[in-house]
Amino acid sequence: MKKLVNDVNLVVDEELDGLTLLYPNILQRFPNSNVILRKESPVKGKVSLVSGGGSGHEPLHGGFVGKGMLDASIAGEVFTAPPPDQIYSAIRNVHGGRGVLLIINNYSGDLMNFKLAEEMASDDGIEIGRVVVNDDVAVESPENRRGVAGTIFALKIAGAAAERGDNLLDTQRIGERVVANTRSMGVALTSCTLPRVGKPMFALQEDEQELGIGVHGEPGIQRTRMMAANEVATVLYDRVSKDLVLRREEEVVLMVNGMGATPMMELLIFSRKVVKLLHENGTKIFRSFAGSFVTSLDMAGVSLTLLRVDDEMKELLLEPERTPSFPKLL
Amino acid sequence: MKKLVNDVNLVVDEELDGLTLLYPNILQRFPNSNVILRKESPVKGKVSLVSGGGSGHEPLHGGFVGKGMLDASIAGEVFTAPPPDQIYSAIRNVHGGRGVLLIINNYSGDLMNFKLAEEMASDDGIEIGRVVVNDDVAVESPENRRGVAGTIFALKIAGAAAERGDNLLDTQRIGERVVANTRSMGVALTSCTLPRVGKPMFALQEDEQELGIGVHGEPGIQRTRMMAANEVATVLYDRVSKDLVLRREEEVVLMVNGMGATPMMELLIFSRKVVKLLHENGTKIFRSFAGSFVTSLDMAGVSLTLLRVDDEMKELLLEPERTPSFPKLL
Questions:
Q1: pTM
Q2: Nearest neighbour of A58 by CB, restricted to B58, B228, B265
Q3: Domain spans of chain A?
Q4: Distance (Å, rounded) from C-alpha B100 to C-alpha B127?
Q5: Residue B258 touches chain A, beta carbons under 8 Å
Q6: Superfamily for A182-317?
Q7: Closest residue by Cα to residue B209 from B193, B194, B223
Q8: Which of A268, A91, A138, A21 is nearest to B63 (CA)?
Q9: Which chain A residue has its CA at the smallest distance from B20's CA?
Q10: Is A95 among the residues known to form the active site?
Q11: pLDDT tens digits, B7-30
């Protein structure tokens, strides 16, 4: 295992330190915790947004804390849900009097721990809303679908709604509308390696790839021979657009997301084909971008996310934000 | 070799297509060439900025075309200088009547081809300035120093100067001042693999790393055992800050740059130590950020860049830009 780390038991602690040291003007770390807070927390008179999950998906979630997006993130250990007491602490420290919206990716551990924290916060009289993100179409049944890269659209759009002054229910509703209109699917060329384990989670031969991979190395739909980028793009696009029931003339935002070790050259080659497929389908592209936003440690691979947008979402997407990692929408 | 590509002979053509398809509002590709132009070219009454170099360093250079930075980039084949006729074509197509500044990384092939293009453009009566970037302190003699990640600071600051209306000489001068105050050094954990070759350029054992690596896999200063992130950070910081003759109370911008396959988790852990070293040294950090900006295909590794800033540079750094890949300075 070749990783630029110090102690494999301290990767989360040290990366959170690194993040807050790089961006001291906008972030702070809550003492003795893995909670990252927006610098000026709590922001009074605004619905607060809190999210989090296991580490290993950087820049998620800490990179999306800041004005216009998250008020707090909570990082669990690598691929492990964050503990309820830290989620509760985050909620208490960002609550500005208008309630707190939790944005949770659809994994049982995350759901359970956020639920426990929600109960503690409710006992304190804090009003809580929740949005569960489940954009991964590699899983058939929607209730079991994992939350993957599409989560950053929920953070952005609900975050912009909160920032403009929407109440808790309205902020939650637009978050839910984003989730209802977001679909993703990914492919792995290589496995990721957990720092504490030091060897790949699964074996992929030199001529193999895994379609429908999860961001924790969960098995995909199909292990296939290595395909050309255009073929991978077509397979992912077909499944994502079909599940989204994407019709001609509808308008989308396209995200091409690297899984951690994918060079920009490859993301661009993949993007080329996806944009061409959208053009062929008669779909309008409101904005599109490529980068690594929701990763799986050092996995090589890519995911494709489409968000179907309406006028309100478009307006909120273009609201300014001040976070380390949300892309410019140009 | 596991790469998400189609035809290894078409990677540059296809990635440039991908880039312009993703960002149609700000970029255009000049027909039958590897020239990327700012959408609204030529911008009249402004000094124009042109840069370029071999491909394989994405998002450099195309990701830095747009308002406030480059007017045009020219991509050569992978690790190969762009041809003079395309550089000349870029110059002609962006010239807005106030001259063109070429920003060139210090490699003999690039210098030669930009020189030839400059001569052709001068024959047309276009006034040309040039800035040569040579920030890599892994090379002892300054005249042989390679241009690496620090080049994006020259693009940004000279680009902002041009945008505010500086003349050619002033734009060149501030670009030169940026170069004089920028130093970088990198380390490789793995080799990169050229698409057409299909196997690593050099061999690094599981317990080895290469300090002072070049962005084309040029040999570094020293091949050592794998070091902890803190130790790597200290070695690179010492060399970079010493060469910059960085004194207490001076102010810098810090860039931690991934080499193509380095996950954000590792960049953050590395960043943590660098920021601590700057604090210990009494250096003020104006802005700092981590990401992958000047890469070496699929190399795992990191580079550290420090830019010593003065008041004018700080002001220009904070000017808005509209490019796909320049980071937010928060």
A1: 0.98
A2: B265
A3: 8-180, 182-317
A4: 6
A5: no
A6: Dihydroxyacetone kinase; domain 2 (3.30.1180.20)
A7: B223
A8: A268
A9: A272
A10: no
A11: 999 999 999 999 999 999 999 999
